[in-house]
Amino acid sequence: MRVIVATYNTHGGVxxxxxxxxxRIARVIRELDADIVALQELDFRTGADMLDILREKTxxxxxxxxxxxxxxxxxxxxxxxxxxxxxxxxxxxxxxxxEPRNAIHARIDxxxxxxxxxxxxxxxxxxxxxEQAARLLTALARHRRDAQVLAGDINEWSVPQRxxxxxxxxxGESPARRTYPTVLPAFALDRIWASPASALVRxxxxxxxLARLASDHLPLLAELRxxxx
Length: 229
Fold this sequence. Notes:
Helix content is 23%, strand content 39%. The protein is built from five helices and twelve strands. The N and C termini lie close together (12 Å). The mean pLDDT is 95.
């Protein structure tokens, strides 16, 4: 079965023109035509909750995971899926003294095939990301029987850093595609891995004119081939 997974850092819905325009993010997501979308930097502000808007505009199932609350709402990660979401949990990846972080773990029914997706946004310091990668692997190890996908903004600026080495050792090497910044992409901050590794067929960046304007990251997409059993 063919499944398209995407990861997209939305920059809080604020584009390069400095406008808060969640409807524009929704248009980019519709361009992707993905089955599952991991989302980072969502603004859950009161009266203009980004995930509510994206769910309404795309017609997809949605899961929210707030990382911190503000006076006018919250901020954090999200997940959209065309397929039914059977169960979810939020994995705390926060490190003392650093900005709170988490991962969404969702079990999704892809027409009878169970897929576990872990959608996340790692921290800005290398030692922080190393701990977050190790915690995620502990969660992944509990669900070895199902196909797995890890998608998100990993914030690794160079391949040799330890968090990437930890994740590559578990999944196999993820193709590095430059997604940041949108004006002149130079860094592969956004990544998608799959287990089994053979399920990952193709990884590419979505570079439409709208995507170049809507956020400071370009969306990353992966084509998966899932087999029953």
